[in-house]
Records
---
Amino acid sequence: MGRADRDVRMSLQTLRVLELFLENPSEQLSGADVQKRSRLASGTLYPILLRLESAGWFVSRWETIDPSSAGRPRRRLYRLTAGGLARASAVFASFGRGVLA
Amino acid sequence: MTHPGLRAALPAAMLSAGLAGGVERCAQRLIQHAARRAPPSLSARLEEEWLADLAARRGLSSLRLAIGCCWAMRIIAHEHTATAVPASACALGNKVMIAGTHHRRSASSHRTTAVLLVICLHAGLIYFLATGLVHRSGTLPPTVIQAGVTHELQPHYQPPPPAAPRLTPTRVEMPEPVFNFDLPADAHPTTDLQVEQPQQPGSTSPPLPARRVPGGPGKGFPNTSDYYPPAAIRLGEKGLVALRVCVDGNGRLSADPTLAHSSGSARLDDGALRLAQAGSGHYRAATDDGRPVDSCFPFLIRFDFKD
């Protein structure tokens, strides 16, 4: 995926995902975690995660665990980039000024 | 020896576990199928990522995740194609062919996905019904039906009949009719006509029946002042004349009025008789139960000045 750091079409579902990551910008969340907290359908959530990642707002990596000892497969973890944090913060700040980003 | 409920619950649990395993396997295959239809650069990653998320789910929740992944794959493939096709078309013509082939393959895979979705929905429905029904049959306690008479039925309460009303005869007292004619005062002397029907203990007429309404002067009866003799007016004569008149059902005189009591003035008596004679046809007939009848009654005429 590219790191174009470009604009992303904002929807209410995208805002919910960004808001979730802005609560703790350094936290790494899997798709299952985001889905559990945001209560978004998986058919909506995964395209948003990929869209934000391809736009450079998110980066993802595989969880560093031993699946045999953990008893479960490794997960894909997402977190905000520095540019994504700034862009997401700017989006929510624009709501405070009454202007949609 | 095993409990009967346990014997019923064991197959249910096995069936439930089997169905749950079947649903999860179905969801897993659905995710694998969806991931293989994703763009090649994302296919392996999405399959592993979605299967890892699927491992945290059980039952119908896993099926929901798998269906959502199928939908997500469609969106991801559409967005990936929309961004990749223009660049490929600018680069090489055969790339466009590959992209078009991929699009047709994606269209054909839609039918496969729809069929798989229908199958999974049916499997989920069967699983839901089986687990719900078997669970209910395994946990229901045995029902014992007991029948017996616990108490005798009490006779229906019937309220006592209402007491018969006591009717007492009531006598209705009718007031005596009094007719007063007040004439307006003007330059000429005026008289008052008062027609009264007093109770006469010594009267020979039979008592009226209870519904008898006596007669009297009616609408259009002549004015007393018109029959006040001018000579009596000049002489200042006043007085009360009592006549007896007999009237038929139409308000006409059935006989000539007769003088019952003189006023002491022949002029006033004569004027009263002329007045009673002129009023024929304008008397109000007596009625029995509302029906006009012939009757005779005393008729009092007062000639008087009014200042």
---
Amino acid sequence: MDITLLGQHLINGLMLGVMYGLVAVGFTLFFGVLDVIKFSHGDVLTVGAFTAFATYLALKAMQVASPWLQLAAISLVAMLATALLGAAIAKYLVLPLRGAPALNTLLITLMLGTVLREGVRLIFPDGSNPKPFPRLLPADAFTWGALTLRVDTLILLAAGLGMIVGLHLVINRTKLGLAIRSVAQDGETAMIMGVNFTAIVLITFALGSAVAAFAGVMNGLYYNEINFGMGLLLGVFGFSAAVVGGLGNIYGAILGGFLFAGLQTVGAVALPFASAYKDVFALAVLIAIMAWRPTGLIAEKTSERV
Amino acid sequence: MKRTAVVLTAAWLAASAGAAAAKDKVKVGFIGPLTGGVAANGIGGRNSAELAVKLRNADPKAKYEYEFVVLDDECKPNVGVQVATKMAADRSIVAAATHYCSAVAIGTVETYHKLGLPVIVWGAVLPDITYRNKFAEVHRVNGTMINQNETAAKLMAGLGFKKWAVIHDTTDYGKGHNKYFSEALKPLGGEILGTYGVTADQQDFTAELTQVKALNPEVVYFGGLTPIGIRIRSQMDRLGVKAVFQGTSGIKSDAFIEGLGPLAEGALSFIEGAPVDKLPGGQFFKTEYDKAGYKEPPEAYGAFAFAAMKLILDRIEEVGPDRAKVNEALNRTANYDSIVGPVTFDDHGQNAVPIISKYVVQDGKWVVWEDSEYASGKRKLR
């Protein structure tokens, strides 16, 4: 295979990996602090993307023309709105069910996901149709052989990787991160040590959801198109990535994201049969990995399993 | 002067004699979706078919007086089979123009075959309706995705394109388009460099499109619907795939243009049928339809319902109100002059020369190819 072609596949795969990783991080954070699986995560991403789009339309109506200002505003509004949404979901749906079997949380968030998705479809004007997401980044392109690289692709890739590094720093270098890690390790002990358990849970959900909104905006800017169903598949892929990486471990989630994206790319490119099977291939490999390492590639350090 | 008077008197006498002698009554049927989501199309079709009957009844030369029987299939296969059975079991109904919805039409062909009612499908486009079986009773005036792809291949090959890459969704719709387009392109010397099946809810196509890019095709053929059509076209741009975007009837929607903005420019689409003013007999049909005073528009397939019903009436006039004879006469139809162009039924009862329209996006609008600046050479497909 031509080296430039390989480069193009690599860029495509990296971009997908960053997006899957950012979604997977949310799943893994929520599982870390509360041991719950929140299936509405993908649809929270959709809400984030549509909030950004609505903000853009509002800015356009107010005649704010600078693309950088627009970009900053839509990202900020989308992340804030979904952070609030995430915290509200935690406060009113997830925390009250703490004593109940984990299955209940899973089901209730699964239903919530449908509510959010259909809500976006019905409330947003003409929401059933795909919406053109604005191009706010410079679209100059460089071409080497089969490799075409647009500046906006590079910026998005850098922003995504930056977000991952930022998350790493927050979790590992700040007091807030310490509190999140302590709650993840042992909620009761953390409380005894003076950590405000509820606040930390809410902040974690807000953080994970804001990261999902960031991924949603990235998704919109990358594909220049958003639709009400975009979060559904991203949610499934992100969750798979989180599980295969090891639920509860941030690096596992990111590793899982890149692994899944890589498998999909290989599935579409290298398999002799139709590319329609690329998801089948990628998910089948994940199943095989799960059979080999049931707790994921990087398991949570302090496993409570007896 | 005197002679004129004599002629006029004779004509008057002849006319009144014709009217006075009571004509035999003959029943013809119509089935379409008159309620439900696609009711507008069904009602437009019904009005148009009724118009054909009215015009015939007003014609003094007609041998019979026709009664128009209408049933509603609601675009539901189960209801469709019920009403089809009801109509076919009524032996006084000689022939019928039936169905707009493919799912209904494919479910009812067996009923017509068993009960021996000659029908002409006026709106459903699924190839299987005529081609899965070889029922002598089933005919169709409008085209299918087979004809659509033949027209598409002919236009594109005629423009000098030689190399294609095909992306299609893996539903029956997308797979059918892939199959029929590939078949139509081969004899014209076009080459398909690669074929990629994708799922209908896929978001990312960069891997497939990178492969496509390496093949360096002149045209990307896409068999599927608007949402992923938008994604593929948009991602082609991101990856720098410079090829013409050739779609099917599935992307002929305003949402496609709205979703892509300026990127939609130059995308192609092909659909069965044509806007009324592009039909050979469109002007006549429009005038008569307006004169009849219908409140609802004829919609896209009204002219086809009119043509189907007129063909039935012509055959009954020829051979008399007998199902078997009418059916035989219908099967012999070749180069019949209708308002939707010539009709020739092949051995499956499918109109072999149906009208297909070509569209191209020009300045944010779907423009009929022949009227576009791309056809006149002012702009070039890139």
